[in-house]
DNA sequence: TTATTACGTCAGACTTGTTGACTTTCCAAC
DNA sequence: GTTGGAAAGTCAACAAGTCTGACGTAATAA
């Protein structure tokens, strides 16, 4: 199954970056980097007895205040039973508010409370700090490549969801 | 907490890529891409009643045949109790062989059996296929940036582990 | 001889995920 | 208005994978 692409290709440009060995390095880089990527928020969460699932919910509620449970389910890709448990604790502990939908009263629209927003800032600032350092070290061109490869890795549906996320206004 | 870096910097080059918004896009790209990244192996694993933990163990045993349990523990960053359960099933089902260490008989050296190696190939080929498509779509320069950013995201220790992984000889 | 290391194992817990079944609420179409 | 079906929520049961803590055994190192 070894790909024999590590020779001079027709176009003239090198395809050495497509060897199985290079691909494996990329796979390992993803594994290690993802672990590092979640490490900082995980520390904060553990201290408050929350988990990554809480972080993800908080992140996307912040990202699109008022989104419905179904929409959140869709983005997270989990079952409603699984999300429900997480969401319930967040609501009970006053981080998230669930309002009955205006146009459709069956729907629940989700909002962060001030307390929830405070935790969101704490978590995302920790995560951004690492990202910022990495971006700064690698430089703008590397960052563009990083984003390109990640996007090329997503399924069509995931990419659509990713692209559909609104720009957040810069907090003034 | 908003970073005011989105203005013309001293060096002359734009620092727009360091805005909080850009960082958040990167964070979300990591989240979605990682999910896609694990999706293909997950399907194969589910069918055989294994999980991601089995995949990770198999991956690194294949990567460095004969490595000890402690070394594997170190790479994976989990407790021995957690690894033990996974390892035990892999040994019981004949995917991994555990041999008593030659220089130190307390150690167990881990090897994939033929059956284990076959699963490893199946899993990693699925994962590589997605990676290969992404790499091909994004191009060599983007790939270089991708790797640069991921490496810059790792802690020092993780980066050391990542770099210590041997090159595997290309299967002839 | 003793202390330490490497490994395995047992027990108990927690988070996050799953299926399946059921109820409540509500909109919309008939 | 009644009814069908969608959206949301709930309950129960379970599994994977993680953790901590405690203990035992074998082998090496001091």
UniProtKB/TrEMBL annotation, chains A, B:
GO BP annotations, alphabetical order: response to stress
Domain spans labelled HTH marR-type: 20-155
UniProt cross-references to SMART domains, sorted A to Z: HTH_MARR
Keyword Disulfide bond annotated: no
Listed Pfam families: MarR_2
Keyword DNA-binding attributed: yes
Family matches, as Gene3D superfamilies: Winged helix-like DNA-binding domain superfamily/Winged helix DNA-binding domain
Key words, A-Z: DNA-binding, Transcription, Transcription regulation
Gene Ontology molecular function: DNA binding; DNA-binding transcription factor activity
PANTHER family: TRANSCRIPTIONAL REGULATOR, MARR FAMILY, TRANSCRIPTIONAL REGULATORY PROTEIN
Name used for this protein in its record: DNA-binding MarR family transcriptional regulator
């Amino acid at each position: 199954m070894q790909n024999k692409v590590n020779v001079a290709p027709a176009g003239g440009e090198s395809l050495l970056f497509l060897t199985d060995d290079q691909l494996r390095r990329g796979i390992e880089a993803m594994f290690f980097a993802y672990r590092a990527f979640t490490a900082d928020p995980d520390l904060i969460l553990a201290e408050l007895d929350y988990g990554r699932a809480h972080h993800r919910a908080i992140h996307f509620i912040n990202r699109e205040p008022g989104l419905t449970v179904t929409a959140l389910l869709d983005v997270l890709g989990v079952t409603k039973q699984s999300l429900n448990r997480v969401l319930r604790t967040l609501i009970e502990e006053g981080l998230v508010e669930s309002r009955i939908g205006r146009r459709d009263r069956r729907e629940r629209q989700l909002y962060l409370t001030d307390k929830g927003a405070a935790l969101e800032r704490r978590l995302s600032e920790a995560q951004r700090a690492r990202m910022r350092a990495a971006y700064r070290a690698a430089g703008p061109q590397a960052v563009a490549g990083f984003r390109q490869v990640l996007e090329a890795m997503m399924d069509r549906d995931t990419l659509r969801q990713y692209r559909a996320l609104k720009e957040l206004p810069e907090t003034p």
